[in-house]
From TrEMBL:
NCBIfam families: PRK05467.1-3 (NF003974), PRK05467.1-4 (NF003975). This is Fe2+-dependent dioxygenase. One of its GO terms (biological process) is intracellular iron ion homeostasis. It comes from Pseudocalidococcus azoricus BACA0444. SMART domains: P4Hc.
């Protein structure tokens, strides 16, 4: 399941993040790639030692914690550290799959990946995130402050930048529900019950759907 999320950050958060990134120290992105992915990773990212890193990461995680659609779709148990990537002309990230397990002291299983676009698509040429699916390739280039959430198990790449600069926040999610098909069932049920509640309020049908959603989550969640 690939989902696009809008209005992830507040206007203030978005402005603050971009101002701090403009003054930040960027290093080779290969430092955080797996042993083979670094061979095809050609970008830069905010240094993990940069003074702004902790504050910027906290802003993104706070925004995701309050974003209803993200919570419904991801059912997050753990979020990875946030990477802030920068692609200039000629930079790209070749075809790769994300590491299944990330981190050492606190390992995380990467069920889902996300890219939060921090640049207007009109400000750079190229730079599409291309995800391989059973229906073929899906090229994604979203508006500023929109995010794509997709399975980390997919092969994907970032097309070369022709002009301008592409800024994005990148991260991974270990979900409470490992199985993607179970997450989709829970997402569909949650979507329907919320729509029903919005139209009719708390009805016996809403209560039954809520019971079903809760009991399936109880059965499938890994705490």
């Amino acid at each position: 399941m690939i989902i696009n999320l809008a209005n992830v950050l507040s206007e203030h958060e978005l402005e603050s993040i971009n101002l701090q990134l403009a003054a930040g120290e960027f290093v080779s992105g290969a430092t955080t790639a797996g042993w083979y992915a670094r061979l095809v990773k050609n970008n830069t990212q905010l240094s993990s030692q940069a003074p702004a890193q902790e504050n910027l990461e906290a802003m993104v995680k706070t925004a995701l914690n309050r974003h209803e659609l993200f919570q419904m779709a991801a059912l997050p148990k753990t979020l990875s550290p946030i990477l802030f990537s920068r692609y200039g002309p000629g930079m790209h990230y070749g075809l790769h799959v994300d590491n299944a397990i990330m981190g050492e002291s606190l390992p995380l299983r990467s069920d889902l990946a996300f890219t939060l676009f921090l640049s207007s698509p009109a400000s750079y040429g190229g730079g599409e995130l291309v995800i391989e699916t059973h229906q073929g390739e899906q090229a994604i280039k979203l508006d500023i402050n929109q995010m794509v959430l997709y399975p980390a198990s997919t092969l994907h790449r970032v097309e070369p930048i022709r002009t301008g600069v592409r800024l994005a926040a990148i991260g991974w999610v270990q979900s409470l529900v490992r199985d993607a098909s179970y997450r989709e069932i829970l997402f569909d049920l949650d979507t329907v019950r919320r729509a029903m509640f919005g139209k009719e309020g708390k009805t016996p049908e809403f209560d039954l759907l809520t019971k079903t959603h809760a009991n399936l989550l109880r059965q499938w969640a890994e705490l």
